[in-house]
Amino acid sequence: MNQGLGIALAALMLLTSGAASAQVYKIVDKDGNVTYTDQAPPDGAEPMELPELSVVDTDYEEAEAAETGEGAATGEETEELTPRDLRRMYRDFRILTPANEETFWGTANAVVISWGTEAPLQPGMKTRLFIDGAPQAESQATTVALTLDRGEHSVFAELRDARGRRLVTTPTITFFIKQAAVGVQPRPTPHNGH
Fold this sequence. Notes:
- Strands 4, 6, 7, 9, 10 and 11 form a 6-stranded mixed sheet that branches. Strands 3-5-8 form a 3-stranded antiparallel sheet, with no helix packed on it.
- Helix content is 16%, strand content 29%.
- The protein contains 3 helices and 11 strands.
- It has helices spanning 3-17, 60-68, 83-89, and strands at 25-28, 34-37, 94-97, 102-105, 110-116, 126-131, 134-135, 143-147, 151-160, 166-169, 173-178.
- The N and C termini lie far apart (97 Å).
- With 194 residues, the chain is α+β, with helices and mostly antiparallel strands.
- The chain has 2 domains: 1-53, no CATH class; 83-178, Immunoglobulins (Immunoglobulin-like).
């Protein structure tokens, strides 16, 4: 048995015996094996001095009660969902409209953007929309109507919990706004190769 393990065993014996001031003896036999004991050897050996044990309080019992559902039965409040739980719950969070690569014609540059998820949002959750990389104000709404310049645009959204922590980000959607030019005749299509 190595010395580090022996010290650990001695510390364990101290804790399990319930006597903080118990004596611990180190015995080394003729082969060099080390043994720790709280029983004095017959040869009148001196007890060894051990450093004071450090004790760290943990919330192990509270975490165990939360996992087993205890507390709910006694009327105590259950813990809020962790960010990891929320990420799993909202992994389907996505931009619903526009579709990727969608083109809007003749809408006077107006576009409706909507986003959502199958799971209902928890109280205090908000979404931050990013249009062409620029963040918009956080909102609890799920739809916004915007007027944008003609051309290519991108949008993605972040779902944030009540504490403002980002949980899920949607994939980026690219869309186009085009307007028909006034007074321009469409090109004639060739017939029979002419």
